[in-house]
Design brief:
5-stranded parallel β-sheet, Rossmann fold, alpha/beta, 11 strands, 11 helices
């Protein structure tokens, strides 16, 4: 259930197209549906603008399928994160319509929302080829959450001319997601070049003293470029969710004006 569907349902009740009993039936699963092992949050899109997403690790294939079916039955496009290929194959036997995005370890069920024509685009910037899996988690998640997404990969600070050659693309985006491991310097560079929101994603890529991404995380948190938002290590989906909400604000009128 989202705002548009709720408004449509109540309007049809008001004009007599839908009986009150039918509306009550449609609203029974608000705000959640108890499956015993999970409480499926059908109300989340209505509250936050983003639907519940299935984090796959720790769940069985049967549990993922059951949650996905209930979300889909509630009218939601379903997104599953951190789903390995072998489990996606098993899940496809239960959900034949499942679509799998191997590089980002994501799966989806149903029709994702289309980007509003007046909404700007997101640009996902990745430092190196080793950062691609996290960058693709961010890029594909953002697409499936209803954004127009562009990619600019392998433009890390070891070859800064590669980034500067695409300065027009950096400045054209509404929101930028910048993914980097090693010393995590790329978001600071990008943040010093654009007047747009920059979401930094540290990855666990690097040698011993990178401490599985901790060095990049701390570097991004200590960036001297003002206004950078930092998400957790390897959290491409979290960056996509934040970027989606920011991007929507670029095409919505200020309620105070």
């Amino acid at each position: 259930m989202d705002t548009a569907r709720l408004h449509d349902l109540l309007s049809r009740v008001s004009n007599g197209q839908v009986a009150v009993e039918q509306a009550v039936e449609a609203l029974k699963t608000l705000p959640f549906e108890d499956l015993g092992f999970a409480r499926v949050d059908h109300h989340r899109r209505l509250r936050t603008g983003l639907p519940e997403v299935i984090f796959s690790p720790g769940k069985t294939v049967d549990q993922i399928a059951a949650i996905a079916r209930r979300l889909s039955a509630g009218g939601h496009h379903v997104l599953m994160t951190r789903l390995e290929a072998d489990r996606a194959d098993a899940l496809r036997g239960l959900l034949p319509a499942l679509r799998y995005y191997a590089e980002g370890r994501l799966a989806s069920l149903g029709q994702p929302p289309s980007p509003p024509p007046e909404q700007g685009s997101l640009l996902v910037v990745a430092a190196g080829t080793a950062d691609f899996p996290v960058a693709e988690e961010a890029a594909v998640s953002a697409e499936l959450l209803g954004n127009q997404v562009e990619r600019l990969y392998d433009v890390g600070v070891a070859g800064l001319h590669r980034l500067l050659d695409s300065l027009d693309r950096l400045r054209a985006a509404s929101v930028l997601i910048v993914v980097a491991g090693m010393e995590g310097a790329l978001p600071s560079v990008v943040g010093g070049l654009v007047e747009r929101p920059v979401i930094a994603v540290p990855t666990s890529v690097g040698y011993g003293a990178s401490f599985q991404g901790l060095a990049a995380l701390l570097a991004m948190l200590n960036s001297c470029a003002s206004g950078i938002t930092v998400v957790n290590i390897d959290n491409g989906f979290g960056a996509a969710a934040a970027a989606t909400l920011m991007n929507r604000l670029t095409c919505q009128p200020n309620p105070r004006t």
